[in-house]
Specification:
The complex is a heterotrimer. Chain A is mainly β. Helices cover 5% and strands 24% of the residues of chain A. Chain A has 1 helix and 8 strands, in the order βββαβββββ. In chain C, the strands form 7 sheets. A 5-stranded parallel β-sheet of chain C has the order 3-2-1-7-21, covered by helices on one side. Chain C has a 5-stranded parallel β-sheet with strand order 9-17-11-12-13. Chains in contact: A-B, A-C, B-C. The interface between A and B is medium-sized, with 11 and 14 residues.
Chain lengths: 115, 388, 461
């Protein structure tokens, strides 16, 4: 960012070790763990997480825009904007904000492959 | 305050037929007024599948179709945009030996028309089109056929005509239509009156009403296609697809969406139609059978339109049997998009020379009348009626 | 009586109270809802197994939320409840449903449409960056998942929700680095008389604002949102006020400008629409009782015009009473009148809200050409303006046909308002003169795989 205006807080570093995560858990952390795989990497979510929460507590994107190629991470969280579609390794597509994470789900958030 | 205009040619209907006719008439110097009751290209011309296809047409349509093909090649020059037209090729799938035989017979019968049809065996098909489902056992490929975006192309014809000086009036319904001596008189509300020696009836699925006004009844029925489109998908299909025997057609646009059609929609009212539940599941199943790549895809939108069908599935193109100066072009049975520019050119021929080098005899409106009534004469007001 | 088969679409405040009223009069409605649990958005229940008490989830609304949840729980065995079920179309007196990847149909004799609302958004540069969400999304993350959308959050836009959500986040321990309200202070003061029609709501709004200030949250009013900046995700938010530009570092932005109604089902059912000046958009017409222009179809709650959760409960009950009366049942006329009077008062409050938190009418004129308006299809304001200039397009469906705006997966939900504003400004017309996007099925994306599953045979009444 090149600006002539001071940006308050720019010098502060985030305390979180998962500095690339978008979503931050602030409550309800005492839930059963649920194992899933994201882009080949085994991770742990909590029972009752949506796919969106599960993925975004580790990363900052769900997919790439088909046209600009830029990363997207959902928008409305209530099934309206249709921006949170995520693909499984087997090619199935699901809406991340409206699908609960399940044990063993294998998700990809890169460029979509053929179904 | 009644605005009164006189022009050489009045055109009713701003779809691709009327708009391309307006364009070509302007290019040869005729003055044109085009009256469109909604927005140009908002009906069948703007909501069809977008196939720009010669293959599969009855033989008597092929000369007209070939002429259109030549005009499609000049689209940017004619209308200022390419309308996303590409010669992707059209592949007509056989799902059985009988289908294959049918395709081969068609290829034999159409040799002279320059379509360069190539038969693909099962093995050749699997190699060329690995994305095709096993239900396809062979196909006929027309390499020069293609696809375009009707939402862009059809309005662009009207815009091009306007830029060349055609007086194009949108949101202008023809409320009264009559003959006064040897001119046609068209009125829209209390505000516009147009007088012209030539009248082109390009009113699409509603053109039979105009024909009937001049004593020519045609048994036309409205039909509604069933259309659907997917979300953008990774590119996998480079051809426009149809199947022998009909049922489903599909193409993938440059942005990745697959446009699919097949079956019948239904009418909401005289002017609007919708995709139908009863056909949707079947269309989706047939599509996935043909294109397994769609098994995880979604339909994000469906639509339909209103098209004119005559019993022989051939259009009416040509002069009125009852009224000098009246020329018809309607009833394209859902297959008019590719013909559009060709029809416009033929209509321009008919206005300027009274004939066309492109054979259209089989499309004469006379085939529907045993004995055409004589043209009505007399003053305008007494014979006028509300139209469309 | 057995020929009356009512179906309610939506199990938020309006749908639940409608169901309650029908059950009280001996009917057994089918209640279809897209969500896994009833409650709608504002009273959305977390998944089973979450432990926060309702006080923590709903704050001042805990009592109302609990009452609403309890109301549905009490009638659960007296209704045919279909959660996780999307209504994707309607045709010939039947709804098209999608549940668990399978399609089915549901016949109805009478229908109460209570489809609710989503955030109304106006884009700013950078709004598609990861980490930029709607206000409603920020609330869902907190309420429904126990998450904050970031660790240093900016809330922006305008409307009462802006302050509510900033307050909820700050109370939950998330750092709210700024609240950026495009509405100025003067409008809020002028609106107080109108807002006094719902004094409790006004009091709550003032409470949130006061609380934020005393807890050190920077609140800026009368600002213009300039841009969100960042690479892989948002890192800063810039705004303008009185000719100066400011910026603050952040890792999330929640924004919105009040709500917009989900009217797609009403559209497919053939309901007549009319332009509503207050909502700045076309809404399905309804009479004081909630009857639409289609016999047997009733509209209740935010789905046919934003009215707030309290009003949605009254509207749901009122629509149910109308349905009952229309089918020959005796209903409490004084109760119906009481509900209508409450609803009428809400209208005055809503006008006050618009005065306090006005829609930024200057947004379109200030929108740069390279601003993405349609995020599904990545269509910019400049492309829309070029289309108007090149083709003379003046109507929304024509603009959509020529530019693809609104053709993406969300079918114009997100971009429809902004696109209409750009179109109106580009062809120098009023927002009510550019038409509205035609509704088309499916209401939400329909998977091809659903056609492979044999359709579940549906019983009618």
């Amino acid at each position: 960012m090149n600006s002539s205006v001071d940006i308050p807080g720019a010098a502060e570093k985030t305390k979180s070790t998962k500095s690339t995560a978008l979503m931050h858990r602030v409550a309800e952390t005492g839930r059963k763990p649920v194992g899933f795989v994201l882009n080949g990497q085994p991770l742990t979510a909590l029972a009752g997480d949506t796919v969106l929460t599960a993925v975004l507590t580790y990363s900052a994107r769900l997919r790439f825009s088909e046209f600009s190629g830029e990363p997207r991470a959902g928008f409305c969280l209530m099934g309206a904007c249709q921006d949170c579609w995520v693909t499984t390794e087997s090619g199935k597509r699901l809406r991340a904000c409206g699908t609960f994470i399940e044990e063993g789900m294998r998700l990809v958030t890169g460029a979509e492959g053929l179904a | 305050m009644m605005e009164r205009i006189t022009a050489d040619v009045a055109i009713v209907g701003g779809g691709i037929m009327g708009a391309s006719a307006a364009l070509f008439l302007r290019r040869i110097g005729f003055s044109v007024v085009l009256l469109e009751r909604d927005l140009c290209g908002s009906r069948s011309s703007g909501v069809n599948y977008g196939g720009v296809r010669r293959q599969g047409r009855p033989l008597n349509q092929l000369p007209l179709s070939q002429r259109a093909q030549g005009l499609w090649a000049r689209l940017p020059e004619l209308i200022g945009t390419d309308g996303e037209y590409v010669r992707s090729g059209h592949l007509k799938i056989a799902r059985s030996e009988a289908d294959l035989a049918s395709l081969e017979s068609y290829r034999d019968r159409t040799q002279g028309f320059g379509m360069d049809l190539q038969m693909l065996s099962t093995r050749a098909l699997r190699e060329r089109c690995p994305w095709l489902g096993r239900v396809a056992v062979g196909a006929s490929l027309c390499p020069g056929d293609g696809q375009a975006n009707p939402r862009l192309v059809s309005p662009a014809f009207a815009l091009a005509a306007r830029r060349l000086g055609a007086d194009v009036r949108e949101q202008t319904r023809v409320d009264e239509l009559a003959r006064d001596g040897d001119v046609f008189v068209l009125r829209s509300g209390e505000t516009l009156e147009v007088r012209a020696k030539h009248l082109l009836n390009c009113a699409g699925a509603w053109a039979d009403r105009i024909a009937a006004q001049f004593g020519e009844t045609v048994p036309m029925e409205a039909g509604h296609p069933e259309m659907a489109v997917t979300e953008p998908l990774p590119a996998f299909m480079d051809l426009s697809l149809g199947v022998e025997g009909g049922g489903v057609y599909a193409r993938q646009v440059a942005r990745g969406n697959c446009v699919i059609g097949g079956g019948r929609g239904y009418a909401l009212d005289d002017q609007r139609a919708r995709a139908q539940r009863s056909g949707m599941a079947g269309l989706m199943q047939q599509t996935v059978e043909l294109l397994p790549a769609l098994k995880n895809a979604h339909i994000i939108r469906t639509w339909s339109g209103t098209e004119g069908y005559l019993p022989d599935r051939l259009p009416v193109i040509g002069p009125s049997a009852t009224t000098p100066g009246l020329i018809h072009a309607f009833g394209f049975a859902g297959g008019g998009f590719q013909l559009g520019p060709g029809v416009g050119a033929v209509l321009a021929d008919l206005v300027s020379e009274g004939r066309s080098a492109t054979p259209i005899g089989d499309f004469s409106i006379q085939r529907f009348s045993a004995s055409p009534r004589a043209a009505t004469t007399g003053l305008a007001s007494s014979t006028s009626t509300s139209v469309v | 009586m057995s020929s009356v088969q009512p179906v309610i679409v939506g199990a938020g405040p309006a749908g639940v109270r409608a169901a309650q009223a029908l059950v009280a009069h001996g009917l057994r409605p089918v209640v279809v809802d897209e969500a896994p649990r009833w409650g709608g958005q504002i009273y959305r229940q977390p998944p089973e197994g979450f432990t926060r008490p309702k006080q923590a989830l709903y704050g001042f609304e805990a009592g109302r939320a609990d009452a609403l949840h309890g109301a549905m729980a009490a009638i659960l065995d007296k209704v045919d409840y279909r959660p996780d079920t999307l209504v994707w179309s309607a045709e010939g007196g039947k709804l098209d449903l999608l549940r668990n990847g399978a399609m089915s149909t549901l016949a109805y004799s009478h229908l109460i449409v209570a489809t609710g609302a989503t955030d109304r958004v106006l884009p700013f540069p950078g709004w598609t960056l990861p980490g930029v969400y709607t206000l409603g999304a920020a609330q869902v993350a907190l309420k429904f998942q126990g998450c904050a959308i970031g660790s240093r959050v900016v809330f922006a836009g305008t409307g009462p929700l802006l302050y509510l959500i900033a307050y909820q986040y700050a109370k939950a321990g998330a750092k709210v680095v700024a609240v950026l309200d495009t509405a100025g202070f003067a409008g809020k003061v002028a609106a107080v008389p109108a807002m006094l029609r719902q004094p409790a709501l006004l009091a709550k709004g003032l409470y949130y604002l006061g609380w934020l200030r005393t807890h050190g949250v920077a609140v800026h009013q009368g600002v213009e949102l300039a841009a969100a900046e960042g690479g892989e995700r948002v890192q800063a938010m810039r705004w303008r006020k009185s000719g100066r530009e400011y910026a603050v570092a952040c890792d999330a932005v929640g924004f919105g400008y009040a709500l917009r109604s989900e009217t797609q089902l009403a559209d497919l059912l053939g309901c007549r629409f009319a332009y509503d000046k207050l909502q700045r958009g076309a809404l399905p017409e309804r009479d004081a009782a909630g009857r639409s222009s289609v016999a047997g179809v009733y509209l209740a709650g935010d789905g046919a015009g934003i009215m707030g959760a309290d009003a949605a409960e009254w509207a749901g009950e009122r629509a149910a009473l109308a349905l009952l009366a229309d089918t020959g049942q005796l209903v409490d006329a004084s109760r119906a009148l009481w509900l209508e009077n409450r609803l009428a008062r809400v209208a005055g409050f809503r006008r006050g809200l618009e005065r306090a938190f006005p829609f930024p009418a200057g947004w379109a004129a200030a929108a740069p050409d390279d601003l993405v308006v349609c995020r599904c299809e990545e269509i910019t304001a400049g492309e829309l303006r070029r289309c108007v200039a090149d083709t003379g397009a003046r109507e929304m469906n024509r603009l959509k046909a020529l530019t693809r705006v609104g053709m993406g997966r969300c079918q114009g939900r997100t971009c429809g308002v902004a696109a209409a504003e750009i179109l109106a400004q580009a062809c120098v017309a009023q927002p009510d003169a550019v038409g509205r996007l035609r509704g088309q099925a499916p209401i939400k994306p329909l998977p091809f795989s659903a056609a492979a599953v044999p359709a579940v045979p549906q019983e009618a009444a």
